[in-house]
Amino acid sequence: MGGGPDKTPEHLLCTLPFPEPKAVLDRIRKNHPQIQITYRDLSHQDAFAKESGIPDDLWREATILVTLSALPPTPAACPKLELIHFFSAGTNHVQTHPIYKDSTIPLTTSSGIHGPQIAEWVLLTSLVASHSYHTLHSWQTQHLWRQQSQISRLRTIRDNVGQRLGVLGYGSIGRQVARVAHAMGMDVIAFTASARPTPESKRDGGFIVPGTGDPDGSIPSAWYSGLDRAALHRFLAQDIDWLVVSVPLTAATQHLLGAPEFAILAARNAFVSNISRGQIVVQADLIAALEAYVDTDGDVPAPPPQGSATDDEPSPPPVVAERGSGLGAGKKGLRGAALDVTDPEPLPAGDPLWDAPNCIVTPHISGLSVMYADRAFQVLEVNLRRREEGRGLINEVGRERGY
After folding, report:
1. Disulfide-capable partner of 342 in 109, 163, 347, 398 (CB 3.0 to 4.6 Å)?
2. What confidence score (pLDDT) does residue 147 get?
3. Residues whose CB falls within 8 Å of the CB of residue 255, separated by 6 or more in sequence, listed in order
4. Closest by Cα among 80, 64, 58 to 32
5. What are phi and psi of 16, to 5 degrees?
């Protein structure tokens, strides 16, 4: 009696902003023949539009919904719905919706699928900044081999070996950034909302792309945790050279980083990467911290005058900062930032963030990848098997905590 997988007929409704991935859905049909699949391509409209145009009868019959943001208008409109799987890493964009507030339908996210591509964006933009790539590209476009008067700036480049990465929010993305940074010789420290005192508590219990991340939580040399400012400040005061912001956006994390936090990070003129949400940062305070760095006396040398020499005479090597001092020792503020998220989005053309010094801004694209859809469906498939076996879901959202 019983004991086997549940094969009750299901109706899977997909409402996604891209064409139907036929090979992926055929895979689901093969492995779960009891599931009927209906696909609605919403690429013709705003991905976050309030009205999706999905017929009422589809909402009524669906037992599983796969979506980015399109939801039934009310819980009453979807009486059979037993699972909603989001193609996003978080659910902050639907937290005011009746389905989120007024139902107990289990919600799962695609957290875990973004780590590889976002970690590459984080590394890319940090190296663009630290290796003065904009200067090098300018030389190429001008067909210049090199400008001797500016070569001293390139001699001040410091590699990542021995520097400290602070990961604010040690989820799947933060763990993959940590993995890459650790491979480059960096020391990694982690911050989480709740304490992780045991090996089991440090494990990643969500979806993991094979060969990525930090499954057992062994990479950080130290873990910090807490829900108050004092705990956050203790973490930020640990001589961090590079801060990666990867916490979810909740009421508790909105404007988590402002002038007091940037003042702590300025002790080592830290570089800040934000791939979470723009509202986590007080944007005006970030701009002020970036401006403080370039306003400090003795900053970047002026460009060479017309006709200056570009010979290859050697110049003396600079004195490299030791671990005890920041990379911009004696300077104020933050040495740079890379932001894939802003407040608001889209960022208005006249916003001062566009022109903030040493700041890279990209339009919320770091998570894009040809593998995105396939991996997001892989999370769903893990949970389809778990439901049939009567096991708990991975990546399930805790409504009370907001993620």
Report:
1. 347
2. 76
3. 279, 280, 281, 282
4. 64
5. -130, 150
